[in-house]
Amino acid sequence: MPAKVIEQLKSIYGDKGEEIRLFYSPGRVNLIGEHTDYNGGYVFPCTLDFGTYMAIRMRNDDRVLLTSLNFDLKVETSINNLVYDKKDDWANYPKGVLKVLQDEGHQLKGFEAVFEGNIPNGAGLSSSASIELVTAVALNEVLNLNIDRIKLVKLCQKAENTFVGVNCGIMDQFAVGMGKEDYAIFLKCDTLEYSYVPLNLSGYKIVISNTNKRRGLQDSKYNERRSQCEKALSYLKKELNVDNLGQVTAEEFEKYKYLIPDDVLVKRARHVVTEDERVLLAVNALKNNDIKEFGKLMIESHNSLRDDYEVTGKELDTLVDEALKLDFVIGSRMTGAGFGGCTVSLVKEEYVDDFVNIVSKGYEEKIGYAPSMYVTGVGDGAKEIKE
Ligand code: GLA
Q1: Cβ–Cβ contacts within 10 Å for residue 189, how many?
Q2: Less crowded by CB within 10 Å, the N or C end of the chain?
Q3: pLDDT at 217 exceeding the cut of 70
Q4: pLDDT digits (tens, 9 = 90+) for 118-171
Q5: How far, in Å, is the centroid of ligand 1 from the Cα of 39?
């Protein structure tokens, strides 16, 4: 794939003999800590070993020419006119990144770029953060902008929030931008304190199962959950001196939940508070090589997302139920925003093929169409590829 994007850039935009550079950015899977990032809590994602490639060649004018080999769409715009346009589809992500860089006072130039990736779109594996980061890292390097990586991560989140209009937290961009081969990232989302934890899975593999459910009301439901958390927090603040739900302990929550007058809001907040504790326990379990405990916490996380946060739905629940029928599966849960998208399961290495066959069959029988399966290792974060 890397060689192909460079060749395609030459064939689409001409071979002018000028330098073409190649960048890569992965997708991510969150192992535990869901819907905690925008509550200032903990997350524990890792980077996939597949992602998005971008070949780039600078121009001497203001034109920005973007092609994705995954979509039948070429976009041409100017560095002096970066506005969101629905019909530009995926190209709004790179355009958004250019816009936030420009708003920060960086001088940009025109360029040609060809993208190709193998992260399924809209499946909750951060294909959008991957395009954002690959663009940001490429421009940072090619134009010598000297922006540090965490700042780039924040700018990419800003591009998604303000330009694309998706109100996501920081987890996806952080994971994709900061990922490291064979490590997961333990991140506290309000302070951005983080550490790398070796992902020693003691003979288990990460298998991602995609529900292949069509995208529905995902964004509006996501925003609804965010505002429910804010509401719940505002009641708790009557007694607790906290800035976000991530700062509330399970004990404090039990003591003060009577302040929240609405049962739904109590459930939403309970998920966040308990999920945050599960992340801490899971990271410790992993550090102690207790993979069974890690798996158990993944299952509890799914149950909480199903019962308290109510973001699973029959497709995700079916994938998890089918997976957990198998005694070589140690943990399984939805990952990402939910309502569709993917699950992540820990499967004993020698049974991965059985997992794929049995879970696919069980899911198809109940849901009516097949899921997709991806067996992944943990790859590096966004970077330049130098051959
Ligand atoms: C999406 C968002 C993230 C995070 C997850 C839920 O992936 O982009 O910021 O909120 O949902 O954990």
Answers
A1: 23
A2: C
A3: no
A4: 999 888 999 999 999 999 999 999 999 999 999 999 999 999 999 999 999 999
A5: 11
Residue 129 Cβ contacting ligand 1 at under 6 Å:
no
pLDDT band at 267 (very low <50, low <70, confident <90, very high): very high
**Claim to verify: residue 371 and residue 238 sit in the same structural domain:** yes
Closest CA to 352 of 378, 326, 319, 325: 326
Q: Which residues pair with 197 in a beta bridge?
A: 184
The 3-state DSSP composition of the chain as helix, strand, coil percent (nearest 5) reads: 45, 20, 30
Catalytic residues: 172
Judgement on whether residues 187 and 237 belong to the same structural domain of the protein: no
Q: How many domains does the chain have?
A: 2
Q: Phi first, then psi: what are they for 213, rounded to 5°? A: -75, 140
Give CA–CA dist 58/20, Å, rounded: 8
Per-residue tokens: 71? 């979509």
For residue 280, what pLDDT is reported? Answer: 98
Whole-number pLDDT of residue 214: 78
Q: Is the CB of 31 under 6 A from ligand 1?
A: no
64-92 mean pLDDT: 95
Cβ–ligand 1 contact at 172 (below 6 Å): yes
Task: Say how many Å lie between the CA of residue 273 and the centre of ligand 1.
Answer: 16
Calculate how far, in angstroms, residue 335's C-alpha sits from the geometric centre of ligand 1: 9
Give the atom of ligand 1 at the shortest distance from the alpha carbon of 35: 12
Residue 266 Cβ inside 6 Å of ligand 1? The answer reads no
**Residues 179, 222 within the same domain:** no
Residue 277: exposure state from Cβ atoms within 10 A (0-12, 13-18, ≥19): middle
Q: Is the pLDDT of residue 216 over 80?
A: no
Which residue, judged by its Cα, is nearest atom 1 of ligand 1? 337
Provide the residue range defining the domain that includes 229.
204-376
pLDDT surpasses 70 at 98: yes
CA–CA distance, 328 with 307 (Å, rounded to integer) = 25
**47 and 151 share a domain?**
yes
**Six-digit token pair at 63?**
């034109």
Mean pLDDT, the chain, rounded, equals: 96
- Which residue's alpha carbon is nearest to atom 2 within ligand 1? 168
Q: Report the separation in Å between the CA atom of 170 and the middle of ligand 1, taken as the mean of its atom positions.
A: 8
